UniProtKB/TrEMBL annotation:
GO terms for biological process: L-tryptophan biosynthetic process. It holds the Pfam family PRAI. This is N-(5'-phosphoribosyl)anthranilate isomerase. Belongs to the TrpF family. InterPro entries: Aldolase_TIM, PRAI_dom, RibuloseP-bd_barrel, TrpF_fam. The lineage of its organism: Bacteria, Pseudomonadati, Bacteroidota, Cytophagia, Cytophagales. Residues 4-202 form the N-(5'phosphoribosyl) anthranilate isomerase (PRAI) domain. The gene is trpF. Its EC number is 5.3.1.24. The keyword Isomerase applies.
Length: 208
């Protein structure tokens, strides 16, 4: 199972994560209202890290995203807002980078909304709906994913922790399209500072 560790900001903490966990992706939040916001100046420290770097954006402009791609050496763009199909298509055409399109889950999922994104994005990512967009630590009703109708691989997110590993594995057994997990606040000591040992333990439990 692939692992994305999101909301990283400190160079030492990120280096430790890479050394001890080797995540498939490391996420940085470029949304100024987030407690995990990564400012432009941080690229000097974080830009050179040897890991696939995901930039998380909420309804940002193409120009803002392009700037972060250049400065931080992003490999992946996570669209965490209400980005349209046209915008997502333009972004893919202009950058050629891997794209995660996030869908914030409430009480139900309308699969027709996801369909036009299928030829454009590399992965869907399902997260819990909150007004703050992400990093809430809240779990949504995973039963809603059981009739996922596409072959497109997706990542699961929203309140993932060591406590719900058994349920994650149960879902993975039912849905082979679930190829990755996105973790964040349940592994934090403080916003944007992760407990690396706890993440290592989570990875071990998920993969064994
Ligand atoms: O983490 C944030 O502060 C954040 C703010 C705005 C948009 C997205 C954000 N996080 C993106 C992520 O991919 C998180 O990992 C995801 O929301 C799950 O977080 P959590 O429920 O804390 O595990």
């Amino acid at each position: 199972m692939k692992l994305k560790v999101c909301g990283m900001r400190s160079l030492e903490n990120a280096q430790d994560l890479i050394d001890k966990v080797q995540p498939d992706w490391m996420g940085m939040i470029f949304y100024s209202k987030s407690a995990r916001f990564v400012s432009e100046e941080a690229h000097v420290a974080l830009g050179g890290l040897p890991v696939n770097k995901v930039g998380v954006f909420v309804d940002a402009s193409l120009e803002e995203i392009q700037k972060c791609i250049m400065n931080f050496g992003l490999t992946t763009i996570q669209l965490h807002g209400d980005e349209s199909v046209a915008f997502t298509k333009d972004l893919k055409a202009q950058t050629g980078l891997e794209i995660f399109k996030v869908f914030a889950v409430k009480e139900s999922i309308d699969w027709r909304v996801l369909e036009p994104y299928l030829p454009i994005v590399d992965y869907f990512l399902f997260d819990t709906f909150t007004k703050a967009y992400g990093g809430s630590g809240q779990v949504f009703d995973w039963h809603l994913l059981e009739n996922y109708p596409f072959d497109k691989p997706f990542l699961l997110s929203g309140g993932l922790s060591i406590e719900n590993v058994t349920d994650i594995k149960r879902l993975q057994n039912k849905l082979p399209q679930l190829v990755g997990l996105d973790i964040n606040s349940k592994f934090e000591i403080e916003p944007a500072m992760k407990d690396i040992e706890k993440i290592r333990e989570f990875k071990e439990l998920v993969n064994n």
